Amino acid sequence: MIRLYNTLTRKIEDFKPIRKGRVGLYTCGPTVYNFAHIGNLRTYIFEDILRRTLEYSGYNVTHVMNITDVGHLTSDADAGEDKLEKGAKREGKTVWDIARFYTRAFLKDIRALNIKRAQNIVPATSAIREQIAVIKKLFAGGFAYETPEAVYFDVSKFRNYTKLSRQRLEEKKAGARAEVIEDPGKKHPQDFALWFKRVGKFKNHVMHWNSPWGDGFPGWHIECSAISTSRLGQPFDIHTGGVDHIAVHHTNEIAQSEGAFKKPLARFWMHGEFLLVADSKMAKSAGTFLTLQELEKKGFNPLAFRYLVLTSHYRSKLNFTWESLRAAEHSLERVRSFIKTLLSERKKPKHPVSLEKYRSQFDDALKSDLQTPQALSVLWKIISDYNTQSESFDAKKILALLYDFDQVLGLHFTAIKKDAIPETIRDMAMKREVARRNKDWDKADKFRAKIETAGFVIFDTPDGSKLRKKQ
Ligand code: AMP
Ligand code: ZN
């Protein structure tokens, strides 16, 4: 049984899918006005581990993700500039070019991190009809009202509006007041926009569509309500995102979807904690953030970042430092070299030890709310046990087990190849062997030295001498 922490109940609960054997999973996708930063990518890695754990446990997962390509505003409080228009101005491109370019960049990042792509990736601009349909339902249910500037969700009409964040409504009010949009028709400061009309400060808004409330564009939150429910049904199993989405975005998604369809939106709400830099949240809007490209430019393998993320539990904050990334890369390199050792191992013990205990520990770790640090420690236990008693292990079986683990870890273990040993080196090793047999130790040592200078090591085992590339 998989057990997962549900933000809605603040408890770790047994996971039971709504439909046998199937899981509907929704992930809030990127806002494509800039590159994703490695904090965002940490959240997508957590969501990937969740999906892979479900698949590893035999579920058929339907994964849906939106792409926020309608420029929502730089502030959650319906005020501020349009993010995409800001990006377009910065780069002298159209908003459509900006969205296309950064969507591609995002897909490239997730490929480099071996994050499985959602089967349905839905740009908000391609789901305007669905968004309008939800807003219409909200009108019909008395949850929405219109002003000359916009259409709002009336939070006073929705019972238990703050059930996810468990904030008091007054706290939200205080938060909103600082930058609240000055629409005199708005009933409560916490009310949030469902549709903006192309009037006033938005009269030149570049992206716009027709709607029953006039020409304009949707508010940010409505796209996720519309896209999730239209693709997965309502309720669906698991909704995910970063912790910053709890208080505003997910709270509003719940109000919209549950207001419109009178049933819960999702059974489980799961949130990934922040990646910090120098102890504060890495944020796009602060303008100082690290991208995967920057890590690669410094010579890091993107999978080293994936490994680093797996070393901490998704509900703990993770402070990013270059040293920790270096350490992660080093660890990953050691695992890779262990796999190479297994690939070159030929001998087969008669009575190899069973690997079942490792498999079940790995399984238990992931099924206990995705404890990736514990899952990695099982991997390290295998390495240390093998190194101390390699004669009791069947290398091929360990390899098969590690490939199996990699279905969840996603560290590309199956792509690791044996180090190729050039013919000239093999030839020298043969000559050394002949010299040894003739007890010509001087000559044998010379060949060993030559082999080592060429970057290889030769070591003698009871089954003869073996060659390996130097690490
Ligand atoms: P955005 O593109 O801003 O909508 O964010 C994409 C995802 O990254 C969302 O799930 C956010 O909650 C998450 N996120 C934003 N900042 C961070 C951070 N510093 N660490 C981890 N996740 C984050
Ligand atoms: Zn969302």
From TrEMBL:
Domain annotation tRNA synthetases class I catalytic: ranges: 15-328
What Gene3D superfamilies does this protein's entry cite? Cysteine-tRNA ligase, C-terminal anti-codon recognition domain, HUPs
Q: Primary place of residence?
A: cytoplasm
What UniProt keywords are attached to this protein's entry?
Aminoacyl-tRNA synthetase, ATP-binding, Cytoplasm, Ligase, Metal-binding, Nucleotide-binding, Protein biosynthesis, Zinc
Quaternary structure per UniProt? Monomer.
Give the note describing cofactor binding and stoichiometry.
Answer: Binds 1 zinc ion per subunit.
For Zn(2+), which residues are the binding ones? C28, C224, H249, E253
Q: Sorted alphabetically, which Pfam families does this protein's record hold?
A: DALR_2, tRNA-synt_1e
Q: Which CDD domains match?
A: CysRS_core (cd00672)
Residues that coordinate or bind ATP: K284
Encoding gene, per UniProt annotation: cysS
Identify the SUPFAM superfamilies for this entry. Anticodon-binding domain of a subclass of class I aminoacyl-tRNA synthetases, Nucleotidylyl transferase
- Quote the subcellular location field of this record: Cytoplasm
* Placement of sequence motif 'KMSKS' region: 281-285
For the motif 'HIGH' region, give the residue ranges: 30-40
This chain belongs to which protein, by name? Cysteine--tRNA ligase
